[in-house]
Amino acid sequence: MDAVLNIPLEHVLFLSIILFLIGAFGILIRRNVIFVLLSLEIMMNAAALAFIAAGARWGEPDGQVMFMFILALAAAEVAVGLGLVVQLSRRFQTLDIDRAEELNG
């Protein structure tokens, strides 16, 4: 039995837009570095979902290739973000993003 689940592209893109807006709202509202990084991850996953859905719709591997690029970008973002979190907590004993202006490198 080969059951194929066909989900309309519009539904997947709607979910992707909702996730992207949640991430954008999290970036605009929160001042904590960890929440901002989490919101960025949600936004990147929303874009990846849209690429995968579009690639599956047209039967092309382009969406999967873009997903791999998004995964690499997310790994780099986590590495840089962890460095920022460690420096902020070490120097200022807070994770408030407004204090990052005082980090002169």
The amount of helix comes to: over 70%
Low-confidence stretches: none
Sheet of most strands? none
**First-residue to last-residue Cα separation:** 60 Å
Radius of gyration: 18 Å
What is the percentage of strand-forming residues?
A: under 5%
**Class per helix and strand makeup:** mainly alpha
Helical stretch count? Answer: 3
N-to-C order of helices and strands: HHH
The tally of strands reads 0
Question: How would you sum up this structure in a few lines?
Answer:
With 105 residues, this protein is mainly alpha-helical. It has 3 helices and no strands. Helix 1 runs antiparallel to helix 2 and helix 2 runs antiparallel to helix 3 (62-92).
Please tell me about this protein's structure.
By secondary structure, the chain is mainly α. The protein contains three helices and no strands. Helix 1 runs antiparallel to helix 2 and helix 2 packs antiparallel against helix 3. The chain is elongated and about 55 Å long.
Write the layout of secondary structure elements.
Elements: H1 9-29, H2 33-58, H3 62-92
Keywords:
mainly alpha, 105 residues, 3 helices
